[in-house]
């Protein structure tokens, strides 16, 4: 599990002064963006532009426990839960000083961007993923 | 079921030229925002500022069937699936000219904004919701 | 001058219940996105993906007269003010039922996306622009 | 002058793989949001919710020198250029490893949120601002 922290900014809040949930998915995506080079060894730019790969989300479940408020420093705990043939399952659990805010579970599929088809994990990436995967 | 249509704009697309999924939740929220006055009889501004009520999302499940592309006119079909004591379940199915793009199922809870506690649907709103609910 | 109208949505508002200004630039860009095919004869997708052209903003000036509020239907009046060798100046004046909200003046430059260099307006596009330009 | 750094994320990029300019204003606003407590001594949440003050932008000028690209670490140099009776002028100059990307000059006005009227800088805040102001 890797932890990334971002403040809940003015840009993320709605007129009730709490997080607007589509913005929380942007922050969740930022955490996964920061998780990617730590685990796969290259960043999204390299993934997209040099290796021609994408990792789109095909399934997502979120539950919101408590509203996040302007100025809170949120901790995003990203964990790799499952490694499939061409997919991964990630969980992202978000809290502020130990108090839960929301949690997301996502399935992402490795795609060849040119052909727009799923591709199996190359051996080097699979080895990295198996190493990062949480014990069951 | 009510249908709302919005174009997939440049602002919604990522560097692969397809929809960035947090933006799809903004469009989904726009559809629910337009559904609200059609069903409840008042808009979000009245709900928040005059009636002191909010309707935050507490649970969300999305599956993405095919990428939405820049310039597509997307149809958002919003249907009310369940009416609880202080909650509702909505489904939003999104397609482009009959081809599915993604679908979202959400649970929202009626909240008193001042007290930050769930409240039961008032009788007038419950009657409107029961009238709008899809047959099972 | 062409007019486009969009509602100020929940997604666009900050915790004071008024428009968050970076979001107003997204709406301004939506108006220019809708102005493009009306004047140039093709949309942004065609511009980018088929013709290999982009029209990035290089200079922007905005003044904000009054806050836009949740639920307002905003009118965006897009006018072409100047046609240069490879650039255009646009003004976008925004009001709600006749009351001004904000105004933006932008300079955009036609770029060849592959070479990342400015290119002169092709004759067919220049003719269309000169036809759309406001009298001085 | 204070410097803040943020990565240009996937969320900020358009389908050409470069920064979408309304998103650059969100990042600019993040820099001003981080500048606020460093200079005024309290954050935006306190400003809005405890002191009932807002600091909306009334005038903005931006020029874009070069496109910012996915993955770049951008430096935002925020400087206070002028202190008026109830306003300030800020400049935000943005570069990546010394290469300029864009620059913004903004005028913001201190507002009483309840009355929606400009208010003069209180003495304590004026003293802090005069201390932070760049020499002319």
The third-level CATH topology of chain A is Thiol Ester Dehydrase, Chain A
- List low-confidence stretches of chain A: none
Oligomer: homotetramer
Helix/strand-derived category of chain A reads alpha+beta
The CATH architecture term of chain A is Roll
Radius of gyration of chain A in whole Å, from Cα? Answer: 16 Å
How far the N terminus sits from the C terminus of chain A, by CA atoms, comes to: 13 Å
Question: Helical content of chain A, roughly?
Answer: 25-40%
Organism (chains A, B, C, D): Sphingomonas baiyangensis
InterPro entries (chains A, B, C, D): HotDog_dom_sf (IPR029069)
Protein name (chains A, B, C, D): Acyl-CoA thioesterase
Pfam family, one (chains A, B, C, D): 4HBT_2
Q: In words, what does this structure look like?
A:
Chains A, B, C, D: Pfam families: 4HBT_2 (PF13279). Chains A, B, C, D: This is Acyl-CoA thioesterase. 4 copies of one chain form a homotetramer. Chain A has one domain (2-132): Hotdog Thioesterase (Thiol Ester Dehydrase, Chain A). Chain A has 3 helices and 8 strands. Chain A has helices at 21-40, 44-50, 123-132; strands at residues 2-7, 53-54, 57-64, 73-83, 87-96, 99-109, 111-112, 117-118. In chain A, the strands form 2 sheets. Chain A has a 5-stranded antiparallel beta sheet. A 3-stranded antiparallel beta sheet of chain A has the order 2-7-8. In chain A, strand 7 and strand 8 form a beta hairpin. The radius of gyration of chain A is 16 Å and the shape is elongated. Chains in contact: A-B, A-C, A-D, B-C, B-D, C-D. The interface between A and B is medium-sized, with 23 and 23 residues. Strand 3 (57-64) of chain C pairs antiparallel with strand 3 of chain D.
């Amino acid at each position: 599990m890797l932890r990334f922290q971002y403040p809940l900014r003015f840009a993320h809040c709605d007129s009730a002064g709490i997080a607007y949930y589509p913005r929380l998915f942007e922050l969740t995506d930022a955490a996964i963006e920061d998780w990617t080079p730590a685990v796969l060894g290259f960043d999204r730019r390299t993934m997209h532009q040099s290796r021609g790969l994408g990792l789109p989300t095909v399934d997502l479940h979120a539950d919101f426990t408590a509203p996040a408020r302007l100025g809170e420093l949120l901790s995003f705990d990203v964990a790799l839960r499952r490694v499939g043939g061409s997919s991964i399952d990630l969980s992202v659990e978000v809290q502020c000083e130990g108090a839960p805010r929301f949690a997301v579970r996502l399935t992402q599929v490795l795609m060849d961007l040119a052909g727009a088809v799923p591709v199996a994990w190359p051996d080097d990436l699979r080895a990295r993923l198996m190493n990062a995967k949480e014990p069951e």
